[in-house]
# Entry
Amino acid sequence: MALNFNQYATEANTFLKGYAKDLNLGNDKERAGRILSAVLHALREIIPPEESLQLIAQFPMFLKAVYVNGWTLKTKREKIKNITEFIDLVRSFDGPASIYDFESDDLAENYIQTTFISLRKYISLGELEDIRTGLPKDLKPLIYHSVMF
# Structure
């Protein structure tokens, strides 16, 4: 099996271009990439590793790379109880750019929901429901909205 890195790059750029538009960022693929990475990295911290593996099995190569970049398996998951704590976790994965990328909690929540909607084309409804089931009660609406599409 030959790896076609140009194809992965093309798919990634096409996705990021559409994702940036979905986030109302125009053509700012760099900012869109930071937001995508921060949301995915926060998600992997709160779901079980087994669920992460089932999730990335459905991703195309470029999303797998984003998801696993810098990942170290931990035996203890983050204890996130509500949307505010999850937004803070997302911001922590964005670093100093989070002040610019996630200006307000409302905007951050919108970006998180948009991320799940954008990923829906790669993730089965069953897998999204599995992830949603494992989330704390206050976080379930983040995925519920996107499961409907």
